[in-house]
Design a protein that fits this description.
By secondary structure, this protein is α/β, with parallel strands linked by helices. It has 2 domains: 142 residues, 3-Layer(aba) Sandwich (Rossmann fold); 163 residues, 2-Layer Sandwich (Dihydrodipicolinate Reductase, domain 2), CATH 3.30.360.10. Helix content is 35%, strand content 25%. 43% of the residues are buried.
Length: 334
């Protein structure tokens, strides 16, 4: 078996806690290099996980190492500049979400990628988790009829790094809520017509005030999604609840209490397989590299997710419903 060679940019945070241990556990990938400007953290991580290539310069790593895919797990402000540098060097890229908080930067990156053979996938891994995949199967099989109402809530306690690091982002919604938006798009399978975010100024940690916690999304052809980012749960780190109402039944899933999907709380749907979704994202990227097609969450798809997220900020600041495609040009001001 030929192993795909990986390199990762970042030796700290989520890279060290999740990505690197996951990559090291996979038989079909070989993590050959790590890059971080923090030399001390770089040495500690590479020693711990036995990573041979160690670099404090991305340019040096791209010149000296042979790798198929570069995984970017940095602060969002570095995502697109680093991804562009890797693509220019002929490497495929897995980049963490959010791709960017800057709509103009995302559009320019999408234009840059046009016609290139390198593939870029945004790691919207919630859609690759077992409950999400099973819920999608339930919907596609018609078990609940036509879906018309989707409710997604993420409860995330103040112990979460996403809360502690909230000052890095416009609010937690652009950091974690982006997962919920992508999940709603994946499940409903239609383009979004509008988004509304009522103002609700809340402070949870480090005196950081967040402008809103809830958004309402209307889909083309019908269907509404209520998406909530609740940061008041101090007794746990994360809990996800998913409910979809259809014309014939209701489908429910509480990710933590049970990774199964229930229709009317009676019919149980279960998906076998490992719970970790990051390997699925990575292997999907490899499949797309081999076939030449674009990944499901490539930049051209992810820009639609980020339009909804950034549109929510525009809606909150202006106190109105933001419509698509009419308001897209306004997003450059967010």
């Amino acid at each position: 078996m030929t192993k795909r060679r990986l390199a990762i940019i970042s030796a700290t945070g989520f890279a060290r806690a999740k990505h690197i241990p996951t990559y090291k556990s996979l038989d079909d990938f070989d993590l050959v290099a790590c890059c971080d400007v923090n030399a001390e953290a770089l040495k500690e991580t590479c020693d711990r996980f036995d990573i041979p290539g160690r670099y404090t310069s991305v340019d040096d790593m791209l010149k000296r190492e042979h790798m198929d895919i570069v995984c970017i797990v940095t602060d969002p402000r570095g995502h697109i500049p680093l991804a562009r540098k890797c693509v220019e060097a002929g490497r495929h890229v897995l980049v963490e979400k959010p791709l960017s908080e800057n709509y103009r930067e995302i559009r320019e990156f999408l234009a840059f990628l046009e016609g290139r053979k390198e593939r870029v996938i945004v790691s919207q891994n919630y859609r690759w988790q077992n409950p999400a995949l099973e819920m999608k199967s339930v919907l596609d099989a018609g078990h609940i009829g036509a879906p018309y109402w989707l409710d997604i809530t993420i409860y995330n306690g103040t112990r979460s790094p996403a809360v502690r690091d909230g000052v890095k982002y416009k609010s937690p919604f652009v950091n974690i809520g982006v997962h919920e938006v992508d999940l709603a798009r994946f499940l409903i399978g239609r383009e979004v017509a509008s988004v509304f975010a009522p103002r609700l100024s809340v402070s949870y940690a480090a005196d950081v005030k967040y402008p809103f916690t809830d958004i309402m999304v209307n889909f083309e052809g019908g269907g509404v999604a209520s998406i909530r980012m609740d940061w008041t749960g101090r007794g746990f780190d994360e809990w996800i609840r998913l409910r979809i109402e259809g014309t014939q039944a209701v489908a429910l899933c509480d990710y933590d209490s049970s990774p199964d999907v229930f229709v009317h709380r009676q019919v149980r749907f279960h998906r076998e397989g490992p719970p970790d979704s990051i390997p699925r994202v990575l292997r999907h990227l490899v499949d797309c590299i081999q076939s030449g097609r674009q990944p499901d969450t490539w930049v051209g798809d992810n820009i639609r997710t980020m339009e909804i997220v950034l549109g929510a900020y525009l809606s909150c600041s202006e106190g109105r419903v933001v419509k698509f495609p009419q308001d897209r040009e306004r997003l450059v001001q967010v």
